[in-house]
Design a protein that fits this description.
It is a single chain. This protein is mainly α. It contains 47 helices and seven strands. The strands form two sheets. Strands 2-3-4-1-5 form a five-stranded parallel sheet, sandwiched between helices. A two-stranded antiparallel ribbon has the order 6-7. The longest helix is centred in the last third of the chain and has 20 residues. Pfam families: AAA_16, GerE. This is LuxR family transcriptional regulator.
Length: about 900
């Protein structure tokens, strides 16, 4: 198991709270789920708090050895501790620990548990860690039963783990059996690891990037079980299409132990079920297994699978089918696939079984797989399409290589559409590394490598150079490569080169799609450089009949974002609605993601915070399990959280977006992500966070200048920097930044309002509150006219703060109440919290209403109440940790849960929540 509890922060925080509230906590779960790792982390936390930790880890093979559990627990103590006991208990305990003869009679047997109780009382506070109570020897269990019933009185807490079958709860003990856990023990399941945590766990494997497809398959098969995942990863390597997932023998033994005694016929039925995508009694009977219903029922009785009323079977754990297939002989697997190929009605499934039944090269099988892959692609099943096309290439017989090349290139295209870059690279490489294909296929292969590279610039430079050299003198083939060069120039921060390359691509293009895509990109670049008229001209020229759905969608999206940046929200909404109305079947993941990011940007500006959170969530889920770290997806998530979610989460996602963009060399999304991060930090109102925001924005200034950006986004970014500088007291530098921003050509109402807001704050800070308030009111009126509610709320909050400092309390209250009501109407908690902090600074007045936080006793646990009370009194996290004998990390986790439960985001609003009357 890993040395740290990856992905277990919430579980650890919950278990820590329960350990403070109960004398016993039992963590339970199936084999390999990570119980030992979790209790090790909890034990380490207890040690850091000054608690004595005694631990035993019983094993099944030692269960018959008396007192071995007690020896593990107490054998580590110095002899002096035992010598301090009274004579009879000391003698009894020493003999139980194999340091003397065991005393006879009932009195002698009683002396051992009495000795342990006295010893633990002297050591208190003590945490007993019983890692695997199902294997405790009976004499040790009897002593611990005695201790458990007295644990609270002697300063002992018991943290135990129990192994239970997949999907089951801890069962009752046998009548008369000892119970090593105290009465009222809290039972807590150890859940599967989340996909992100599983990816983090597997990312430490050597060559993790090159093994990304295998590691993703391992993550899916392990279904959150870290032991299963690490065991599978230990023997993994690159695999050919259709090759069986290798399940190590010791893992197969663990998973299939209950099936070893089954008759051969029943095991074959379970093998058939394992090979089928959607096994059922009817399907397996059609595949020739007459006894399928009884064999499936037997498997259900053994706890291997669950049976629905309609006869559909589902394995309890997704690794069980892989283990059954790996455990079977090759001939048996092929026979099962052959039988299923004749029984399944779905063409893609039939083709897959046919290929796995015939591992030799066969053109008939390859042709059927090719057709099935194309059908899967049309219905949007990109991963299935890739797998079938890759199998088709593998089954293609020797001969002229063109047919195999085409199938490999098709597989790569399907992988790109599905957001599977490593799979795409694997499919393309044999085309470029083998006998030289014709120029058209070489060019297509390079374009697919560019598509697989996505936002990562370092993966595309050589591909572009080689492709452009190769296609010199072939303008129609060179045009898409020049378009790719334009995209990468833009991401790399060279808008001048991007415009040049996009124009060149449009001039060379022989087909409407390439020309339209290049002109669309040219329009976006010109808009970013402040050339609005030329941008619209390029987009008009891009329109043409007969464009592919993907290119048409891309043009609509570009037009929508240009309208949005110009504050024409209604026009942008109409275009995004048009985009959503297009057929979605078969749309590539990259296109869907781009549309979702555009939707988040639109929803945030229109004040539809819940819709923004929903779209951002779909963007994140779109890439779940792909192993791809996406700056656009993280940016969209941060933007949505900043508007309608949690400020802490907005910062986390913005930092993730910044890291991903930095790693990819993507200057465009680095700028966007840094701005969201800075906005989130400034919204906290804390000086340290403000300094970090200003530093982050200053670091991006040179690259933004080199990109020659002159659009509304550039103005907003500079206005935000100026606002941060004002907050830090850097008024002169803020004036220089604002002067730089006013020299840019963009004059969207919101951009002008952002400059007026920053200047208004600067004037107020310089001692001119009347002038500052006037500018802020003018900015608010511009935003009212543009129907930008969240930007209006932020400006009203700034106006309220200026009026408060000028002691114009009525004006301040009016502005802040309006800001708060806007935030309530648009479900914008982070901005609402900021407005409420300013209202609180006004002192007594009407702050009641739906935004006021009210605390009820049921909302917090006892442990959370203690943490909340100390924080509300002004204690730091470190002071809270010292007072409660827990780690600072535990306090941070508990505080996050308190904020989430009460809907607050700062210590100040938490203090107010605790002091407010309960209604």
């Amino acid at each position: 198991m890993p040395s740290r509890a990856i992905g277990r922060a919430e579980l650890l925080a919950t278990a820590s709270d329960l350990l403070r509230e109960h004398t016993g906590v039992l963590l339970y779960g199936p084999p390999g789920i990570g119980r030992s790792t979790v209790v090790a982390a909890l034990a380490a936390e207890a040690r850091r708090s000054g608690v004595t930790v005694l631990r035993c880890t019983p094993a099944e093979r030692e269960r018959a050895m008396p007192f071995v559990g007690l020896i593990d627990l107490l054998g580590q103590l110095p002899e002096a501790r035992i010598d301090a006991l009274a004579d009879a208990p000391r003698t009894a305990l020493r003999t139980a620990l194999l340091r003397g003869a065991y005393p006879d009679g009932d009195l002698g047997r009683l002396a051992v548990p009495v000795a342990v109780v006295e010893l633990l009382r002297a050591l208190a506070p003590v945490l007993l860690v019983l890692d695997g109570i199902q294997w405790l020897d009976r004499p040790s269990a009897e002593v611990l039963d005695f201790v458990a019933r007295r644990a609270g009185a002697i300063g002992v807490r018991i943290l135990a783990t129990e192994r239970v079958p997949e999907g089951e709860l801890p069962g009752p003990r046998e009548p008369g059996a000892p119970e090593p856990c105290p009465p009222g023990t809290a039972e807590l399941p150890v859940p599967p690891l989340a996909p992100g945590a599983m990816a983090e766990l597997l990312a430490t494997r050597p060559g993790a990037r090159q093994l990304a497809p295998e590691l993703r398959e391992i993550g899916r098969a392990a279904a959150g079980n870290p032991h299963y995942a690490l065991e599978l990863a230990r023997t993994t390597g690159p695999r050919a299409p259709g090759e069986q997932l290798p399940v190590p023998k010791r893992l197969r033994t663990l998973l299939l132990d209950r099936l070893r005694g089954l008759p051969e016929e029943a095991r074959y039925v379970l093998l058939l079920a394992a090979a089928a995508s959607r096994p059922s009694a009817a399907l397996l009977t059609a595949a020739g297994a007459a006894d399928a219903p009884s064999a499936l029922a037997l498997g259900a009785a053994l706890g291997v699978l669950d049976l629905a009323a309609d006869g559909t079977a589902r394995f309890r754990h997704p690794l069980l089918p892989a283990a059954l297939l790996a455990d079977a002989a090759r001939e048996a697997r092929q026979r099962a696939h052959q039988a299923l190929a004749a029984a399944v009605p779905e063409p893609a499934e039939r083709a897959r079984h046919l290929a796995l039944a015939h591992p030799e090269q066969n053109e008939g099988v390859a042709a059927e797989l090719t057709e099935a892959a194309a059908a899967a692609r049309r219905r949007g099943a990109h991963r299935t399409a890739y797998e079938l096309a890759a199998l088709a290439a593998a089954r293609t017989p020797p001969g002229p290589p063109a047919r195999r090349w085409d199938r490999l290139l098709a597989a790569a295209g399907y992988a790109c559409d599905g957001g599977l870059p490593e799979e795409a690279r694997r499919a393309v490489r044999p085309v470029l590394d083998g006998p030289p294909p014709d120029l058209a296929r070489r060019t297509r292969a390079r374009l697919l490598l560019l598509q697989a590279a996505g936002q990562a610039l370092q993966a595309s430079g050589d591909v572009l150079r080689d492709g452009l050299l190769d296609t010199a003198g072939h303008p129609a083939l060179a045009a898409p490569l020049w378009h790719g060069a334009a995209v990468r120039a833009l991401l790399g921060g060279r808008t001048d080169h991007a415009a040049e390359y996009a124009g060149h691509a449009a001039d060379l293009a022989a087909d409407a799609d390439t020309r339209a895509a290049a002109l669309g990109l040219l329009g976006t670049v010109r808009a970013m450089r402040g050339e609005d008229d030329r941008a619209r001209q390029a987009l008009r020229q891009a329109q043409a009949p007969g464009l592919s759905p993907a290119v048409s969608a891309g043009l609509i999206r570009r037009r929508a974002l240009i309208e949005l940046d110009a504050d024409r929200v209604a026009a942008a909404e109409a275009l995004i609605a048009e985009l959503h109305a297009l057929p979605q079947d078969g749309t590539a993941v990259e296109e869907v993601l781009a549309t979702l990011v555009a939707a988040v940007r639109l929803d945030v500006r229109a004040g539809r915070c819940r819709a923004a959170l929903d779209a951002a969530g779909r963007a994140r889920r779109l890439l779940a399990g792909s192993g791809v770290r996406s700056a656009p997806a993280a940016y969209a998530g941060a933007l949505a959280e900043l508007a309608g979610g949690e400020l802490r989460r907005a910062v986390e996602l913005a930092e993730e977006a910044v890291d991903a963009a930095t790693s990819d060399g993507d200057q465009l999304f680095l700028l966007r992500s840094t701005e969201v991060l800075a906005r989130a930090l400034l919204l906290t109102g804390e000086p340290a966070a403000t300094a970090l925001a200003v530093e982050a924005l200053q670091q991006t200034r040179p690259s933004a200048a080199a990109m020659e950006l002159a659009d509304a986004a550039a103005v907003h970014r500079l206005a935000l920097l100026a606002e941060g500088l004002v907050a830090l007291g850097e008024h002169g530098e803020a004036a220089q930044v604002l002067a730089e921003a006013r020299n840019l050509p963009d004059r969207a109402a919101s951009a002008t309002a952002a400059l007026d807001r920053a200047e208004g704050l600067r004037q107020a800070a310089l001692g001119h509150p009347a002038e500052g308030a006037t500018l802020l009111r003018e900015a608010a009126e511009r935003l009212r006219a543009s129907a930008l509610p969240l930007e209006l709320a932020a400006t009203l909050t700034a106006l309220g703060a200026v009026e408060r400092r000028a002691r114009r309390r009525a004006a301040a209250r009016a502005a802040l109440l309006e800001a708060r009501e806007l935030c309530l109407a648009h479900a914008a908690p982070p901005l609402r919290e900021r407005a409420e902090r300013e209202l609180q600074r006004l002192g007594p007045g009407d702050r009641s209403g739906p935004a006021a936080v009210r605390l009820t006793a049921e909302q917090l646990t006892a442990g959370e109440h203690r943490v909340a009370g100390l924080v509300a009194e002004g204690a730091t996290n470190r002071e809270v940790a010292a007072a409660l004998f827990v780690s600072v990390k535990t306090v941070e986790g508990t505080l996050s849960r308190i904020y989430r439960k009460l809907g607050v985001s700062s210590r100040m609003t938490l203090a107010r929540a605790l002091s407010a009357p309960v209604r």
